[in-house]
Design brief:
homodimer; alpha/beta; 6-stranded parallel beta sheet; 12 strands; DNA-binding
Chain lengths: 344, 344
DNA sequence: ATCGGTACCGATAACGTTACCGGCAACGCT
DNA sequence: AGCGTTGCCGGTAACGTTATCGGTACCGAT
């Protein structure tokens, strides 16, 4: 009993044809209940498992979803967990590939998944990606594809993402309501859609409060803690330094916090700070950092559900766009008006 | 041009047999260089991609590795990244499945991967798992399997993991050297190997310093922040409360920290604290928490390399065990003797 | 007796690929 | 002239499965 059993083995042992075995196992009609029982019993005994490869080859689908993400940080790993949950339920297996924010890796990954013959893709695009040919190739082949979280206007597909503009808006408005006047934004790379949307929200909040946009207060830097740290140091070195900072990710907020502390400034008094994502870590810091929350897990689930829908209606469906609402979580770092109850 | 091209299409267009095309594409001998060129040209033009399903069915390997992890927290996602890196390089695609620390999910996942016909497994076992039949089934089928990080004596297989005992030892010894006398340990579930090893290290450090083991100071609790918080509250409510706590994960250290702060105790003066994993977050807290570092990324890489080795020597190899060394990172939370330079 | 229907089953081709075997021509050598 | 060798190529089976078609046997009704 080394090699796994096949329907052929069962057929031979039972002296019936493989066709009958196949039917019996799929519990199809047109097969005597006695033979069905016999087949079932034997296949149990031999621990028969249908060979998915053969099956997939035959019916041209693998029941596998290719998931491409730029990394597996807190937010994305929550989303992937959501995808996993729904996909597993629906009988799909997922293959997760990290592009490491690299354009090249992203291409290699799509290529790999494509010729692993996944049934479709759920994608969050890397921050480095400016050309979308590799993804368009997927669509040309009529393979279902859903994008989530990091969407881009250059890629028209069913999508699930946060209302990033609104997120940027409520964060900025909150700072304004707290009395901050010179609000800087630490944005991501210029071609990163989520960053731009959050910045749009920032700008429209400024406009609502009749505050002129100041290009010196708009800083683009790489999507990580170290760059944010240095960028903040520069901001704080300005003659007229900002009195609040909105960073488009919590990682960046942490970088900013380190710079602020180093300069000896106190939050929220000397300077306000608010991040984005509401990672658990920000509530552990001193002071606790305010942030814009999104339900990553739900976004993941929604993406998987949308994928399965798209899969079924194979293509003849408008590219649905699901937009989730962010939620403001106010903590110490931005709360100047109502002083926090405890320390500080 | 809807369906992808096959060698059959190429053969027909070129009026040669599929055998020849197959040989030409694999760049085999026994084929005229002119025909080879023609085939190459046409396959380029038709954008021919070999069908991996058919290939896999034929040669009974999928070039896919099934990776099963309990979750995708910081440590494991770093390890997975390491696995990814090496596997990709070696031409393998990885399928990552999260068991969510659930025994049931783990079984479902192995089952899924098994009949997705992965070439082998790289596994970190869930904390809930007490029976290993599902993994032994893999071995019985002679399918390569490497375990990493969370290993267990119940599963004999090539493995890569940290020297957890040594990690527990150096953490505890450090606390002792700092002058702490009543050191509690917050351990994980009783059947979790890494937890037990770290505890063994803890015990042998106590023994070295001739301190009697006190069962009241040994607390098993679930592997997460909330449980650690409550467990710490209980510890601190003792008549003779501990003057230091060693937690076997940083998550738990954070829970402990919250409890300590709530009780109004100061680290490192009133109580010492040291965690495990050296997640970036612990250096951001106030006070910064000491921790035992391991190079997760390297462990992941090593696991993948070991897998590939195992794969090649198919089975006739002793079950190699690679043990990585931990590293102590001393920060404010445990440094009583040499007072930290800055605040507090 | 013939017919139609039903219940059950088997043979075959196909999915896309490769391994294996055998064949044919051309060539050089005895 | 006959032989073995070499270079190139094609046919076929096989991997494990299912869809399609057709066949047999039996039953009840005309």
């Amino acid at each position: 009993m080394d090699k796994p059993a096949t329907i052929k083995d069962i057929a031979k042992k039972l002296n019936i044809s493989i066709s009958t075995v196949s039917r019996a196992i799929r519990n199809a009609s047109d097969v005597n209940s006695d033979t069905k029982k016999a087949v079932m019993a034997l296949s149990e005994e031999l621990n028969y498992q249908p060979n998915r490869l053969a099956l997939s080859l035959r019916q041209k689908q693998t029941h596998t979803i290719g998931v491409i993400v730029p990394n597996l940080d807190y937010v994305l790993s929550m989303m992937v967990k959501g995808i996993d949950e729904v996909a597993l339920e629906a009988g799909y297996t997922v293959m997760v590939c990290q592009s490491n924010e690299s354009f090249g890796r992203e291409i290699v990954n799509t290529r790999r998944l494509l010729d692993s013959l996944v049934d479709g893709f759920i994608i969050s695009v890397s921050s480095e990606t400016k050309s979308f040919e590799h993804f368009k190739k997927i669509q040309e082949r009529n393979i279902p594809m859903v994008v989530f979280d990091r969407v881009t206007p250059h890629l028209v597909a069913p999508s699930v993402h946060l209302d990033n503009e609104n997120g940027g808006f409520i964060a900025t408005e909150h700072l304004l309501e707290q009395g901050y006047k010179r609000i800087a934004i630490l944005a991501g790379p210029k071609n990163l859609g989520i960053s731009n949307s959050r910045m749009d929200g920032y700008l429209s909040a400024l406009k609502k409060y009749k505050i002129k946009k100041d290009n010196e207060l708009i800083v683009h830097c790489d999507f990580n803690q170290d760059y944010a740290y240095f960028a903040t140091l520069e901001l704080l070195a300005m003659k007229k330094r900002p009195d609040a900072i909105f960073t488009i990710s919590d990682r960046m907020a942490i970088g900013a916090m380190l710079a602020i502390k180093e300069k000896g400034l106190k939050m929220p008094h000397d300077i306000g700070l608010i991040g984005f994502n509401n990672e658990p870590v920000v509530s552990l810091l001193t002071p606790q950092i305010s942030s814009v929350d999104m339900s990553s897990f739900e976004i993941g689930k929604a993406a998987a559900k949308l994928f399965i829908e798209t899969m079924h209606n194979n293509g003849d469906m408008p590219a649905e766009e699901q937009i989730m609402k962010p939620r403001l979580v106010i903590r110490e770092s931005s709360q100047k008006k109502l002083p926090a109850a405890g320390k500080l």
